[in-house]
Amino acid sequence: MRRIKLSYLREMATVKADGYLEAAFQAGTVEGDFLAMGDLDYRAWKKRFTGLGDHVHDVLGPVVRLIDAKFGTDLSNCHGCQERRKALNNLTSAAL
């Protein structure tokens, strides 16, 4: 059984493909501030909503954090990057 904070789900919905939050609520049940989901349902839901934007984020995230630490920038919170991540996620989910 997986338990995911509702606040985390709402935050991630801003960069995930459309329908992310709705699919999560269909796959699990709300228990207080958490969404409980069986392991098989969780894997299927996560696979469905992991797109190209998430993979790019996983690869470049450490590089961006290093640049932020070295040069004092704030690229980690780049709104444009979040929009591109969501666009890539929507593009790949639409192709499936």
Description:
The chain is mainly α. It is about 65% helix and about 10% strand. The protein folds into 2 domains: about 50 residues, no CATH class; about 45 residues, no CATH class. The protein has 5 helices and 3 strands. The chain has a 3-stranded antiparallel sheet. Helix 4 packs antiparallel against helix 5. The radius of gyration is 15 Å and the shape is globular.
Could you state the oligomeric state of the chains shown?
single chain
Instruction: State the domain count.
Output: 2
- The low-confidence parts are none
Strand content: 5-15%
Fold blueprint:
Elements: E1 2-5, H1 6-12, H2 20-27, E2 29-31, E3 34-37, H3 39-48, H4 52-71, H5 79-95
Antiparallel strand pairs: 1-3, 2-3
Helix pairs in contact: 4-5
Question: Key terms for this structure?
Answer:
single chain; 2 domains; three-stranded antiparallel β-sheet; 96 residues; mainly alpha; globular; 65% helix
In short:
This protein is mainly alpha-helical. The protein has helices spanning 6-12, 20-27, 39-48, 52-71, 79-95; strands at residues 2-5, 29-31, 34-37. A hairpin with a 2-residue loop joins strand 2 (29-31) and strand 3.
